[in-house]
């Protein structure tokens, strides 16, 4: 179920697309729609030269008949929204790094209000609105409102509570946030110190709390606190609390609220008002506790419903799933910039003094860049699959089938961790791949890194989440002998006995081209690491103590399992029909690059568990090198396929037309420091210094 599902049903009578008021300026020729992106295979060796789109013969266009039937009709919406945002001056973002925090934040408010106005005026559908938010490309309070506040009420509220609160939230008559983290507790949700004490005398709760949430905008919050009734504790629950007056926005009595201050980087996540909140005996009505999991009666009695209490964590599962798809977007954006720039940039060259070499042609550049390109595609496919898994578990929960919840938790936690860590590292690698110019703000990469990197921490610290996966894996291993057959992403463990014995069949480099060989190597590695951890754990009398002691190894095992999921979902995708000449072949190459690069990076795991021999490892590396040469001719097409506008990329280095150097020069002059030839401060500081030196010299 998506965040804002149904919000339009409540207040917009009909859904009308943008129609013809947004032009699609692309011309003709053939390309292929790969889940909302194109792969226009180039015939010029991918060496697009500097120049306009028209001059390049427009390799990028899509014909309706090229649309792949099994992809959602996402491309057109995405394309239209990208253009809508790019052509609207209110959504300008090239000045963000120059703004003060106050200006930046006010500008975000302006953009959010303008986006909402456009959504209403154009009667955008939920999908269109969500794409618009994506292309506006600025963290804002609305993310938390739609992404966490609304889903928390939907997931944890009773029917009655949903009926009361959701219409207000859908119309943005109230704005909400998700206030769970405290100053002293984030990962440890059960350790929250905020309490909600039921007072049967007045039918109200009282709170004392300190959250991370929205500091300047939200009128309401879903606050997580430990429920206390009749002197007894009943675990952490969500409570809808009004924070500010709906008339003048002033905090309500007993509430102290504000922003927590500047965060990492300029611009970046500072458009968001992460906040501090203190409750001093704030009282709310009993029915503002979200009661789908547990009900508190008028007398203060707790009545447990039949849904598992883990559903209280359900909003986090939802958001973790969206974060995986977002990882693919952030990564593809960084890779698009680095790939285009690598084709433009030339260094060194032939001894005879001919043109210098495009840096993309250096094998070292390729071995750093192409695995990231492959990862961008891999994360897109695994993100699609995870969306399906999430929808599936949601439907099951509605039918009171809770059986797949542990797997959904493990998959969302593990893949959130894996993809965000890889993406944050990849953005930084892309910056380095762009040499000195990558460090310029106008490359777009520093801001992208700063805005992206907290994804490794929020919605669960990545290590803490991998430990959750490890817990799930150890449980699965411990049940292997009990007749309970592992299913879903752990189904391979049913073949544990075989996988513990198996020998990799690779004899020559091309043998690594068999998906079954790659899959088996990854399965064997994951099973062996999990079983080794389980064996070590069994030596501890106290399992919790053992878990703590072995946690670093457990994290490695969890990573191996999650990497297997990504590899297997990429391979599964390729088993589907993919029309378009050469498209499937390109994706296959990327799939092999993704897998073999992981194998190369984690060689220690594969060798120490005996899954492959040193000779086979060396053959894999040989093969990997040859694959880079196969990607090279289509590298530009493979990033053009993401269909990012120059506005969205926000990068001089990643410009579609490759016109990098003149634009870098132009950008430099826009810096406020260049407003005057002689800088402010010259008279006060520079001149006296120079004069002093002159005097000293004369002496
Ligand atoms: C109109 C316009 C439209 C626009 C649309 C816009 C849409 C925007 C969409 C999305 C944008 C989203 C933007 C997001 C921005 C992010 C901002 C950040 C927010 C936050 O960070 S919120 C705070 C997040 N906090 C955390 O993640 C805390 C991490 N900690 C935990 O999750 C848990 O405490 C824990 C899992 C680490 C440990 O919990 P606990 O101690 O209770 O658990 P255990 O004892 O280990 O396990 C008990 C048991 O429960 C199982 N379990 C744990 N968690 C879950 C879960 N989530 N689901 C299911 N099951 C769970 C666990 O496996 C154990 O099971 P067993 O007993 O072993 O079987
Ligand atoms: C930009 C941003 C936005 C946020 N937005 C929100 C929001 O909207 N609402 C909200 O409620 N919260 C929000 N948060 C808070 C966020 O969810 C928490 O910071 C996050 O869950 C991590 O918790 P923590 O800060 O307590 O980290 P800690 O748990 O203190 O982590 C510190 C270190 O300890 C390690 N560690 C912790 N526990 C263990 C363990 N059991 N075993 C091994 N190592 C461990 C971690 O790996 C990490 O290295 C936001 C945070 C950021 C950065």
Overview of the structural elements:
- Residues 515-691 form the Acyl-CoA oxidase C-terminal domain.
- The active site is at 459 (proton acceptor).
- Its cofactor is FAD.
- Residues 75-175 form the Acyl-coenzyme A oxidase N-terminal domain.
- The structure is a single chain.
- By secondary structure, the protein is an alpha+beta fold.
- The chain contains 22 helices and 13 strands.
- The protein has 3 domains: 7-92 and 94-136, Butyryl-Coa Dehydrogenase, subunit A, domain 1 (Orthogonal Bundle), CATH 1.10.540; 174-305, Beta Barrel (Butyryl-CoA Dehydrogenase, subunit A, domain 2), CATH 2.40.110.10; 314-640, Butyryl-CoA Dehydrogenase, subunit A, domain 3.
- Helices cover 48% and strands 9% of the residues.
- Strands 1, 2, 3, 5, 6 and 9 form a 6-stranded mixed β-sheet that branches.
- The chain is globular.
- The N and C termini lie far apart (80 Å).
- Residues 1-73 and 206-212 have low confidence and may be disordered.
- The structure holds ligand LF6QOOUY and flavin-adenine dinucleotide.
- Residues 144, 178-181, 186-187, 211-213, 269, 274, 454, 457-458, 460-461, 463-464, 467, 551 line the site of flavin-adenine dinucleotide.
């Amino acid at each position: 179920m998506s965040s804002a599902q149904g919000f339009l049903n409540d207040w917009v009578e009909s859904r009308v697309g943008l129609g013809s008021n947004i032009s699609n300026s692309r011309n003709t020729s053939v390309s292929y729609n790969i889940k909302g992106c194109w792969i226009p295979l180039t015939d010029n060796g991918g060496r697009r030269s500097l120049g306009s789109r028209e001059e390049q013969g427009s390799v990028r266009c899509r014909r309706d008949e090229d649309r792949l039937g099994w992809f959602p009709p996402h491309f057109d919406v995405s394309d239209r929204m990208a253009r809508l945002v790019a052509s609207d001056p209110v959504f300008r973002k090239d000045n963000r790094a120059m703004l003060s925090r106050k200006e930046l934040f006010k500008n975000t408010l302006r953009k959010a209000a303008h986006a909402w106005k456009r959504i209403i005026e154009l009667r955008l559908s939920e999908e269109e609105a969500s794409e618009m938010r994506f292309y506006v490309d600025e963290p804002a309070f609305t993310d938390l409102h739609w992404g966490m506040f609304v889903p928390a009420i939907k997931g944890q509220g009773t029917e009655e509570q949903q009926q009361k609160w959701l219409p207000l939230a859908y119309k943005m008559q109230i704005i909400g946030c998700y206030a769970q983290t405290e100053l002293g507790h984030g990962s440890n949700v059960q350790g929250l110190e905020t309490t909600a004490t039921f007072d049967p005398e007045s039918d109200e709760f009282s709170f004392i709390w300190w959250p991370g949430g929205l500091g300047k905008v939200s009128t309401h919050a879903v606050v997580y606190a430990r429920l206390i009734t009749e002197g007894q504790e009943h675990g952490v629950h969500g409570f809808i609390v009004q924070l500010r007056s709906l008339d003048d926005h002033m905090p309500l009595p007993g509430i102290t609220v504000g922003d927590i201050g500047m965060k990492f980087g300029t611009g970046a996540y500072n458009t968001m008002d992460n906040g501090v909140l203190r409750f001093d005996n704030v009282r709310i009505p009993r029915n503002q506790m979200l009661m789908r999991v547990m009900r508190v009666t008028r007398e203060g009695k707790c009545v447990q419903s039949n849904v598992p209490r883990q559903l209280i964590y359900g909003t986090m599962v939802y958001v973790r799933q969206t974060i995986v798809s977002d990882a693919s977007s952030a990564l593809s954006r960084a890779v698009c910039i680095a790939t285009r720039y690598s084709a433009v940039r030339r260094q060194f060259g032939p001894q005879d003094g001919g043109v210098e070499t495009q840096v993309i042609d250096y094998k070292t550049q390729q071995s750093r860049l192409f695995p990231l390109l492959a990862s961008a595609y891999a994360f897109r496919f695994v993100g699609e699959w995870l969306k399906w898994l999430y929808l599936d578990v949601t439907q099951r929960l509605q039918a009171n089938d809770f059986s797949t919840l542990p797997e959904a938790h493990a998959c969302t936690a593990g893949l959130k961790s894996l993809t965000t860590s890889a993406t944050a590292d990849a953005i930084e690698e892309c910056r380095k791949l762009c040499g000195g110019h990558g460090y310029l703000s106008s490359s777009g990469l520093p801001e992208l890194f700063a805005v992206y990197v907290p994804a490794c921490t929020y919605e669960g610290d990545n290590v803490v989440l991998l430990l959750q996966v490890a817990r799930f894996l150890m449980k699965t291993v411990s049940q292997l002998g009990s007749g309970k057959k592992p299913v879903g992403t752990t189904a391979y463990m049913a073949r544990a006995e075989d996988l513990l014995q198996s020998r990799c069949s690779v004899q020559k480099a091309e043998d690594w081209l068999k998906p079954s060989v790659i899959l088996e190597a990854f399965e064997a590695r994951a099973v062996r690491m999990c079983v080794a951890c389980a064996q070590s754990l069994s030596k501890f009398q106290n399992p919790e103590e053992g878990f703590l002691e072995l946690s670093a190894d457990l994290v490695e095992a969890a990573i191996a399992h999650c990497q297997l999921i990504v590899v297997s979902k990429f391979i599964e995708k390729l088993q589907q029909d993919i029309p378009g000449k050469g498209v499937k072949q390109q994706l296959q190459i990327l799939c092999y690059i993704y897998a073999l690069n992981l194998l190369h990076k984690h060689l220690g795991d594969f060798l120490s568990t005996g899954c492959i021999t040193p000779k086979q490892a060396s053959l894999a590396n040989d093969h990997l090198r040859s694959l880079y040469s196969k990607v090279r001719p289509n590298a530009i097409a493979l990033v053009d396929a993401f269909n990012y506008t120059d506005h969205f990329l926000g990068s001089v280095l990643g410009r579609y037309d490759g016109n990098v150097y003149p634009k870098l020069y132009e950008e430099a002059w826009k810096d406020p420091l260049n407003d005057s030839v002689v800088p402010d401060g010259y008279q006060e500081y520079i001149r006296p210094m120079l004069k002093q030196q002159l005097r000293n010299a004369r002496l």
